[in-house]
Specification:
By secondary structure, the chain is α+β, with helices and mostly antiparallel strands. It is built from five helices and 15 strands. Bound molecules: biotin.
């Protein structure tokens, strides 16, 4: 995992529909790990077919790389990027601000969503390699005014509301890349347990009441009990303890 981020190319664009889609369009020519970062993204994609609203001045970037780990572990990159994102945001916000990673791939400040991560994979056209694309959207200076869905008990936030100053896209990106490199020193390619441990320390406390949506409209309440060794969510409710591998989670419900 380490070498993928130490030596990546970076392409800055003034605007694009979606940085994930732009990477797919350029996949013929991208043979080494490469970032595409857009100053403005016009048609951002979120997880589960959702739209990601990205105003000017916020961060929209995707990186493509070619993992050697088995496909069934690809989702763990989401936890790795999440930890780097947390560390970056921690350093640019005021002391005492409540920052948490929320399963599976969100960053929350004071229970408002500040960032999300979208993982995709494609077959690289010029080889048999599988390419992983990790797209990261961060509300640096503004956030969309989303209506709070009655089921989804969170709203949006932006980092600048918890900092003494506005956040520059370029300096945020440089700090984020530094964190990815730093984590790479001790998060080895096959050391999945370390990634999950770092992630858990930055998430909600065990026992927190949560609601879990199952992507089919169903929502169940339970207690957050942490992650299993594959990054699955462990939840307990009146019917017992369950492990959940897809869906979304809302805390405090
Ligand atoms: C989510 O929380 O649903 C994931 C949001 C991911 C948004 C980012 S912005 C950069 C990249 N390009 C996209 O179209 N989506 C991701």
């Amino acid at each position: 995992m380490t070498k993928n981020f130490h030596n990546s190319d970076v392409i800055w664009l003034d605007y694009v529909d979606s940085t994930n889609e732009e990477i797919k369009r350029r996949s013929q020519e991208l043979s080494k790990p490469t970032w595409i970062v857009a100053k403005k993204q016009t048609k951002g994609k979120g997880r589960n077919g959702n739209v990601w609203f990205s105003s000017s001045g916020n961060f929209s970037g995707s990186v493509v790389f070619f993992p050697t780990v088995e496909r069934s572990y690809f989702h763990l990159y989401g936890f790795f990027f999440g930890v780097a994102l947390y560390n970056t945001v921690k350093k640019i916000t005021k002391d005492g601000v409540d920052i948490r990673l929320k399963w599976p791939n969100d960053l929350m400040i004071e229970n408002g969503k500040v960032a999300g991560i979208l993982l995709e994979s494609i077959q690289s056209p010029q080889s048999n390699r599988i390419a992983v694309i990790v797209g990261i959207g961060v509300n640096l200076n503004s956030h969309p005014n989303l209506n709070i869905d009655v089921k989804k008990k969170y709203y949006s936030q932006c980092i600048a509301n918890f900092s003494d100053h506005g956040i520059c896209q370029v300096s945020f990106f440089n700090k984020f890349r530094d964190e990815l490199k730093e984590l790479g020193f001790y998060v080895e390619e096959n050391d999945l347990a370390s990634i999950l441990k770092l992630w858990k320390h930055r998430s909600y406390d065990i026992g927190t009441q949560i609601q879990v949506s199952d992507n089919k409209g169903g929502v169940n309440s339970g207690k957050f009990l942490g992650l299993d060794e594959l990054g699955g969510l462990i939840v307990s409710d009146s019917s017992g303890t369950k492990k959940i591998y897809s869906g979304d989670v809302y805390f405090g419900g």
